[in-house]
Structure formats: structure tokens, C-alpha cells
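Justification of computing resources. Each target in the renewal requires a structure prediction run like the one illustrated here; the chain below, 333 residues long, is used simply to show the kind of job we budget for.
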Amino acid sequence: MDSSLNKLPYKPRFATLDIARMVCIILVVIGHYDPVDAPAHYNNMRMIIYSFHMPVFLFISGYLYLITRKDESFKSFITKKVKRLAIPYLVTSVIIITIKLLTQDTARVDHPVTALSYLKMFYLPEAGYFLWFIIALFIMFMVVFFFKSRTSRLVLFGASLVISFLPSCDIDILSLGQCQVMFVYFMTGVVVADYAPNLFKMSIIPSAIILLLFIAGEAYYVQHPDSELMYRLLAFMGIAAIMTLCYNCEKYVPVLTRSCVVLAPSVYIIYLFHTTALGFAKAAFGKLAFFAGNADSIFYLQALCAIACGVIVPIILYSIIKKFKILRLLFGV
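Resulting C-alpha cells:
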């Protein structure tokens, strides 16, 4: 690890994971910028992103869960998760629903809400579908806590793999449909941490092979988007590709590593507020003559500005939140 990282105000224990988190959150922001007039090649890029970015996030969550877990009571464990996940989810939902209610009559708002949304948010990702991840992750933590041994966790991984291939329950309540499909990636992180914690610490050549296989798989998937098997394989291939790539970045690109380690604590706030920032950016574009026109160059300029807002605005917000104890509590910082 770059020795300059030791000068940071906190210990960067998981630099590879910090790089991976920053890569994934940027992909999340790109994926959620989806105007109706987007060019076909941009939509293809979004399709590729959606094939692996959330599985990578869940893999990281499962991996970190195991290597940082403590011998504690369920009450202590769940209290931490309520503070980290449930409270920020509810606070963010209230903020987003309120903003939508105040603006949706005068501006275009994706997924309009009603006053009833303040009640629905307790069992649905009502403020924005992207919040399914917070609900599902909370449930996954509650389940995995009770599997204390390596063998039991391996059995749970096997069960999650089988469940993911069962006919979809397609239930939005408590994001159970997403839990069914996505739990296997969380458990992949748990099992890798259990049995092969150094699995992705590969040299350049094996990493290049993994990346080439992943690129070839994505090229096939773009041409055959109905291939369910390839879609499932790409999630695991994406995990392998991103993790090996980020490990080599940690080894050979110290400037990038340091930047990601510094910015990684803001990832959660970026996730919570990036859609709001994107929404304001899109509203601004509609009022600026500079962004008028249908040319691809105009679209990509808009996309670049919107995605930058989706990342930078929440980072600025994080810098404010971390200064105040009450805000740190409300947003799980």
C-alpha cells in the first residue's frame, strides 16, 4: 500500500475495497441517468453496468461483514444496523418524498409520490426504487447473523444460490424479490472471506485474463440480452473482474488509491442522494438553451454534467454532515 495513505486521519484497512466501492458508486450514478432520448449505445452501456454493479456492491458488503464481525448479541448487532441503515433510509425517504411533493406539480419528476408515500416508505422503497438496496441489505444482515460457523455459512450460500434460480417471487414489499435474487452475491462475499480471503490478489497477467473474459461475456450479452444464463454468469464475472482490477490499482496506481480511500467514506451519502442531484441537474438542463438539441454530443455533455452533479453534490453534502453529530446519526455516517 502507498505509504502516503498512512498520513490520512483514519487507517485505510481495505484500500482495494474502497477503490471498488468508488468504481461501483460511479457506475450506480451513470446507471440511474436514463433520459428517454438516450442514444442506443448509451443504453447498451447502462445494460452492461446493470449486469454486475449491484452484485459487486453486495459482494463487498458480505466480505466486510465477515472480516469485521464481532462476537456480540443480536440486540447489539441489530442496533448498529438500525443506526447505519434503517434510520438513514427513513430520513432520506422523508426528504426525497417531501422534495417530490413540492416540485412535481411544476417540474418533471421521475416516480411521482403522494402524501400516502410517507406511510408506504416503511415497507416499500417508495421515495425511489434504488432504495431497495438498503432494505434488502438490512434483511440480509439479519439473516446471516444467525449462521455462526463456516459450515453453516457455506450451507446458507448454497441455499441462496438455489433460491436465486427459483421462479421470481416478484414482491416489492420489504424488497423481498430483490433479496431472493441478490442474496447469493452477498453470501459470495461472506464465503470468499471465510475460505479464500486473498482470492483476488492476482498479478497482472491472471487479472488481464479475467478482464478479457468479462469483456467477451459482456459483448455476447449485448448481442443476446435475453440470455438468462449469461446474465447470471456476468454478475460473478463482474465481481471477479472488478476486484482483481481494483487490487492491481492499489498496487500500481497509488494516486488513484489515495483518492478512493479519501472519498470512500462518502459512498453511502452518494448512494442516498445521487438521484436527487440527478433530478435537479435534469431540471436545470430543461431551462438552459445551451443544452437544447438532439445531437449525441449534446446528450453526452448533459450526461457528463449530470453524473458529475450526482457524485460531487453528495460528496459536498457528506463534508457538511460529518461535522455535526446529529447529522451523522441521521445519515449513518
